[in-house]
Amino acid sequence: MVKIKMWQKPPSRPEPPKSPGLLKRPALTPKPTVQDKTAGNEEASKKATQEILGELDSLIGLSGVKKLVHEIQAFVEIQKLRQKEKLIYEPMVLHMIFKGNPGTGKTTVARIVGRLFKEINVLPKGHLIEVERADLVGEYIGHTAAKTRDQIKKALGGILFIDEAYSLARGGEKDFGKEAIDAMVASMENHKDNLIIILAGYQDEMDYFLETNPGLRSRFPIHITFPDYSLDELMEIADLMLKQRQYTLAPLAREELAKIVAGMIHKHEHSGNARLVRNLIERAMRYQAVRLVGKKNISREDLMTIHKEDLTGALEDI
Question: Would you indicate the residue range of the signal peptide (predicted)?
């Protein structure tokens, strides 16, 4: 028998081991409320909108175009807030006409506008369907309306971009292009909350097109003019294209490119734009490849550098 002195505590019995799962009740994570989800979605949408506008602002040149797109975005946002507060608001008719020469960025901006309108809940998808006369106009009566409706169906939820739209009115009253215009106008009414149409083409031709069909002017209230690029802007575009592909211009090649672009701007009214620069750069890259392919001990610098002869050879192909 164990004797316990009066000042000693009796030995305590060992406690049974606790189950690890019962040591601590796991903290419960509160479920997000509807308000939390809405706020999160709005924050993400605002961030995406700013990123898209940042992409627009990073384009070279086009200051007037950028300014107008920012105005359209701000107008749409404010009209939505006015509607929410039960104030009088303007109906948002956002069909557009893009006027400008080829290679001035019309299609690029149209794609950005589509994505922007998706983020600010103007369009559910925001994709771009690019078509021209041949995609809309058929060869017999009734064929054109069906072809036009098919293209519109593909574009629902986004943007139908009709390049060289003035060609739809070139053949006069008996031309099937008029049937395409009629089908387009009907679809604008039937899908006014689910479709935006952008008509694009040369400025003079688009002005004439609107005069021959006055009813279109009121249906396309937003007109954006895309100016030709300056020589400095085209050289900046060339540098950006080369940088993205990890190429660079030798000093004599830079002088030659500036001379070529300046000459084309002066000689051809509709040639001095980004498309010309892209064609020159891409062809020069191929000429450089032909020049290097049989060479021994090709260095990293060789692989990256475009020389004057590469550009002169490319120019002969254009």
Answer: none
Could you tell me where in the chain the CATH 3.40.50.300 domains are found?
A: 41-226
What number is the average pLDDT over the span 149-174? Answer: 89
Round to whole Å and give the CA distance between 274 and 233. Answer: 9
**Numbered ranges of CATH 1.10.8.60 in the chain:** 231-317
User: Structure pTM?
Assistant: 0.80
Q: What is the pLDDT of residues 253-306, one digit of tens each?
A: 999 999 988 887 766 655 557 888 999 999 999 999 999 998 899 999 999 999
Tell the residue number behind the tokens 């060869």, with chain if given: 139
* Topology of the domain covering 41-226: Rossmann fold (3.40.50)
Angle (CA) 175 177 179, round 5°: 95
Q: Which CATH architecture has domain 231-317?
A: Orthogonal Bundle (1.10)
In 3D, which of 131, 155, 133, 153 has the Cα closest to residue 144?
133
